[in-house]
Every structure is written in structure tokens, then in C-alpha cells.
Amino acid sequence: MERRTSAEESSQTGRQEQEPHVRAGRRLAGVSSPALAAARLTLPGVMDAEGRVDESRLRLHIFQNGGVSPTERGLAWRFLFGMYPCSSTTLERPLLQEQLAVRYQVMKAKWQNFLPSAVRMQLNGTDSELVAAVGYFNQRQALVQQQAHNLRDEIRDRVTFLELQAQILFERVTFDEKELQEAIRIINKDVPRTNRDLSYYQGEGSGNLLILRDILITYAAFHPEVSYAQGMNDLCSRFLEVMDCEVDSFWSFSCYMEKFAKDFREDGLHRKIELEAALLKELDPQLHLHLVTDNLECFTFCHRWLLLGFQREFEHSDALRLFEILSCDHLELISQQVDRARYQERLAQKFCTDTECESEMQAVNTDFTFELFICAAILLDNRDTLLQCQDDVQLIQFTSSLQGTLDLNSTLKKAECHFFNYCKRCAWDSMNCRCRAHNSKGEDFLYQLRSLFVLR
After folding, report:
1. pLDDT band at 151, cuts 50/70/90?
2. Cβ-count burial of 371 within 10 angstroms (0-12 exposed, 13-18 middle, 19+ buried)?
3. Which of 166, 202, 367, 404 is deepest in the core (most CB within 10 A)?
4. What is the mean pLDDT of residues 243-272?
5. Confidence (pTM)
6. Residues whose CB falls within 8 Å of the CB of residue 319, separated by 6 or more in sequence, listed in order
């Protein structure tokens, strides 16, 4: 189906309009998506009559249903990752969309004016697909400029005012030339390595690689404390593919990075590895001991899984579903649902005698996020193979053999089981030798946890 374009409406920033929930027949991503701003989610009980989204219901729906349908994914992600505030109404979001589009264009123009030599990607001519991509991208840019020229006067006045606001907002932002040039150098190497087996980056869609490049450079320029690190291209590519829109992908990616930017730093890398090792020690001491015979370096092969949300280990559509499930944060040891279950367990302790209650219930490690249990489930499912690995080369061969082969539903069930058993052990280990006046309450914690595990 062809994407409809409306010069009158989408020309507010020279952008293409996209029908709600429809993947464009035209392969290049739009600049912005004003039509989606007024679209409605049809997920039951998630959106009210005025267009406000119940965030907890949205996250619960994603978790319980194993993600959302591809037709609603683009709009759902705009709420899930924070581009659209869940409290915003259908009337408010088009105005917000317009403001975000103008701000992004001002931000992109600022670094392009600062480093005009970096506006165009330098090509060596040996990658014919990338050479063609530049042609498609240039055609898109010409269309954008033409649409901007055709703005109606009242729309032009409004956009001019928003541009002035954005310029004032970013006036004091300065760039470190050497650092930004280095970030662009790495981005120029990584963007062509993005998964070009995806149809989204093939044919005319190869021009989306240049759109991805602009998003990454803009992010690096305005987030120097994070800048760019390898792997961000694959992560941002996921947003661009699902949202099919440059502006929306930038803001959603930026919101995501507010929470997870630390994972791209060296200390974040070591922290995740340490946590995965600690969790595996809880679940399988023998396998843990084998993998840490010398040091924790043996767990570095897990980091790419955790950093990119197992993007390459599952079939592509399943990897998107898993990314949604992990991002909804519904099944975490710090979530309201799990905390409520633990609270019920603590209430039951009041029936113990003073002597018996001296020992507090063993605390669960709230740093064990659900993604760590997913990782542990993969390791335990391949336990025998891992026990035979004797060096880093064999570990690398093992991880390579898993790419695109894992079954998501099976892995989720096993991860849930490990999560449940971990909480069960933490709750019950400290209960041994205790007296409880109401034994029926002994199942509260476990029953309430089990009630969360309803993934299809």
C-alpha cells in the first residue's frame, strides 16, 4: 500500500505523512509522522476517550501478550519509550509532534553548519549499494525542501516561531570538534555494517542507512557525555525500522538512551557481566565455576546479548517482540507487582514469635533484571555445550552458532521459571524453622508471582 502524502499538513517541516499503522510502500522513512500523532491505540483498556494512555495497562498488555501486533507497534513504541507522554491527549500530540520535528531539524542543522564537510558521507566507491543509497537519500532531501517551500503562510509563520524557540533553546550548546569528528568517523564505519539483510535497508530502502547516520550524529553531537559507541547503530536501527520516521526515531532513541546509556560505557559493561555471573552462580554454581575458572572475562560473550536485547539470537520479528517485553519493565524485581507480592510475604511474618522473626526474610537482588534471566535461560539451556568449552575461541564459536536459532516462547518460559524459582528460594530459605500462625499465607508471595506469568 502506498503511503499518502499531504503537502498541506505534512509540509509543516517538509515531511512525509504516514497512514496510521501502515508500513510505507515507499521505502525511505518519512521525516515526521503527523498522522500518527492523532491515531488511536486499539489495545483494550489502554487508551481513554480523549487519547490518554494508561501506562501501566500498556506495559501489562505488552508483557502478558508477548508484545503488540506489528500494525500497532509503531504507535505503541512512541508511548512505551516516552516520545509521546502517556498523559497527552489526541488534540495535544499533533502540536507536540510539530515542536519535536522543528527541534530536531534545528539540532541537525546546527552540527551540519559546524562541520559542513561531514554532511555527506564519504564513500570509497566499492560499495555499490551505499552509492545508490546516497542517490535515494538526495532525492528524498530534494522532496523535503520542495515541500518546505510550499508551506502555507500561516503554517510557515508557526514553524518560523518554533524554529526561533529551538534556536534559543540550543544557542548555548557547543561542540568539541575533535570529539564530534571521532564520533562521526566511527558512525561512518558502523552504519554500513547495520543489518542490511533486512528488507528495510534493501533497494530504495538502502537510503535509510543515511537517515540512520543523521540520527546517530545528531544524538552524539547533543549528548557528548555519551557520544557514540559501537552497537548504537543496531539499536537505533530497530527504532527507525519500526517507526519508519526520522524525527520520531531520534526522540524515542534518545528517551531510551536516558535510561540505558550507561550500558555503553566500560563500567556499564563490567557491571552487567558481574550481575550475570552472580545470577548464574545462584542458579547453577557448577556452570558458573566453569566459566569463571580464571576471571570474569569468560562472561564478556554475554554482553552483546544484553546490550542489544538479543537482537541477533532470535528471528528478527521475535527479537522485536522480546525488545518490547524487556522494555516494558513489567517483570522486574523492583516493579510494583513484584514488590506487592513481597509485601504480602512480609505481612505473613508478623505471626512469627519475636525470636523467630529476628532473621529477616532473605532479600532478593533487585539488580537482577529480567533480561539477565533471559540470558541465564540461554546459558542453562546450552549447559552441556558450555561445559565443554575450554577457551575463548570455543565460546565465540558457541555464541555465533546461536544467531537466529533460538525459540522465543520457549526461552521466555524458561526465564520465567528461573525467575520464579529464584524468588521462591529467597522467600523460603529464610522461612525454614519458622512458625506461622496462618499457613495459608505461606503461598501469597509465590501465588502472586505466578499470576504474573501469563505470557502466551
Report:
1. confident
2. buried
3. 166
4. 90
5. 0.83
6. 309, 310, 311, 312, 313
